[in-house]
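Entry:
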Amino acid sequence: MSDGDELTKYLNADLELVCAIDLNPLCLDLHSFGLRGIACKGGDGMYYLNCHGISGSSACDNISHIIQALSGLRELSREILGRCVSRVINVGYETGCSKMSFRDVIPLETIELLCKNNLSLHLTIYGGKDCPPGARRENSAHGP
């Protein structure tokens, strides 16, 4: 994942959906595939679902697991998924402190799976907790 910086680590991959109709039936269906999460109605009248994959796996393993779960959904859940206005897999990382502290690869095969399933990929990158003051700011301003 990183070139010698032990502080960089993959955290999680979440499936995030937004829809005008109730997402709870879809959420329950996803639970049967080992995904855990919650669906709720927001103050804007839209429904939101956030499910996360298996802890401790790699980003690609979790993305594949989420897509396998989506492929195995019951018909009602597939219909609900088709009506979602936003379908995102959000991958979280925590970076280290050096300029080369964040390196990871999402292989072409995984990108193709995302595209075939009409899913967007978001990366959430959290700065390292143990970095000296100013290191996170400096690293975000300068490339490798």
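The chain has a mean pLDDT of 84.
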